[in-house]
Design brief:
The chain has one domain. The protein is built from 10 helices and no strands. It is globular, with a radius of gyration of 17 Å. The chain is mostly helical. 70% of the residues lie in helices and 0% in strands. Helix 1 packs parallel to helix 5.
Length: 205
């Protein structure tokens, strides 16, 4: 990639727009709109779909999941029209936006759904492999965090087989490391046996 003024400007624009899209806190917006209050005061305090599910509103959790996937998918699809390099930049920026959202003082979610959306647009076979891994682990063990960590760890390995481009593999590796780093506290709780399992019904007192 030649670093002309035009390419630098395009890279900055791609990164900025993808970051801003990734920063939209759909979990927070949707739960407030449905009268559930601030999702950051529920369960783990995370703004993602898994924590939204802890409100007992399954459809709201699905809506959050789809919106978080879309904010990773769409910026990469748009950037891809202008080249694979810009798509890679947008991919990383969208995940960073979800993890470090501008609107929430840079305190965001774990990045799983947004990373999945990114992978659908950037390398769909890798996204498919990650989705299968997540579903199997989630069904068997009922730990969303464990499913996310294993699916994320599988992504760079899958990319090695499915993606013939080293730059793309590096982008996927960076995204995987970001998501796994964001799950460090979950990994610690899993090791202590203190992690919360996936619950499909809201607990009643």
């Amino acid at each position: 990639m030649s670093f002309s003024a035009a390419t630098v400007s395009a890279a900055i624009a791609s990164a900025s727009l993808a970051y801003l899209a990734g920063s939209i806190p759909f979990g927070l917006i949707l739960t407030r709109a449905r009268g559930h209050g601030d999702i950051r005061a529920v369960g783990s305090g995370n703004i993602g779909a898994t924590n939204v599910l802890r409100t007992g509103d399954k459809w709201l959790a699905v809506a959050t999941l789809l919106c978080d996937v879309a904010k990773g998918l769409l910026p990469v699809l748009v950037a891809r029209r202008f080249g694979s390099d810009l798509a890679g930049i947008a991919a990383i920026a969208a995940v960073l936006g979800h993890i470090f959202p501008l609107w929430l003082a840079f305190k965001g979610g774990k990045g799983v759904a947004t990373a999945f959306g990114v992978l659908i647009a950037y390398a769909w076979p890798v996204a498919a492999a990650a989705a299968v891994s997540w579903i199997i682990v989630a069904i068997v063990f009922r730990y969303s965090s464990l499913a996310a960590v294993i699916a994320t760890a599988m992504a760079p390995l899958s990319a090695w087989f499915f993606v013939p481009d080293l730059d793309a593999i590096l982008v996927i590796l960076i995204i995987a490391l970001l998501v796994m780093w964001r799950h460090s506290s979950n990994i610690a709780r899993l090791l202590r046996g203190e992690e919360t399992r996936i619950e499909l019904r809201k607990k009643t007192s």
